[in-house]
Model the fold of this input.
Amino acid sequence: MRRAILRGIAALGIAAMTIAAFAGSASAQSLLEKIKNGETIRIGFSSEEPWAYPGANNEPLGFINAITLDILKKLGTTRVEPIVTEWGSLIPGLQAGRFDIITGGMAILPERCRNVLFTEPVARDIGALVVLKGNPEGLHSYQDVRDKGLTYVTGSGWNTVEDAKKVGIADDKIMQVAGAAEVVQAVKAGRAAAGGIGYLAVKKFADRDGSIEIADPYTPPVRPGYAALAFLPNQQDVVDAFNEVLKDYIGSDDMMASVSKYGYGKAMLPDSTKAEELCKR
Done:
């Protein structure tokens, strides 16, 4: 009986090792292999209009999703499963294997480059300040918020947090919230004097809500944000493939036809700045 038990334990151990090896092989599978094999590609994003957001039946909408779908089609697939999560869960979700690509319009930042691989930029955004109607505090830049000692609000994990810190806004004057809607609500409620947010996102809210507006004129902070698609660090072949498609796709008639309905215009096209450069800033 003892030998039988030991044989059983050994068999279980071998089975467990086999399962683990299979799981490890599956997790390491390249996205290009999944496309070739006709498997569904899972795209992860948070609900941030007009960058990326879910529509009816969880349809992936927004201009970053539109760009992603176009590239995947050029690479040979239209099989996509959208997975919506909170912004702060995007990188952990990618690392945990919940999805294959982050399509939320994530800005390329050095600290993020340590955890994911970015494609070359697909959009550039100088951002905007959302303020109460009439701009009662006379705010036209991050420096104005800093100099007047006022509270600034932006999304948790956004590149605008670091922009505010670099300009010199004190940590206790930087409020971080879940997303664009919460940024606007904090300004409307008087909990913050101004909110840092992408231009297209704040325009959407300002067009619908007469109690807020976009600060005009506006001087952007230290640099614009450059958004890209993000992948796991072991997917360099995938990033190379996406970048090869992007060379002819960015700014093309095909691209502009897909993204213009979301407000993406020529002014948002990336310049010559490369992802490698942004990862070192």
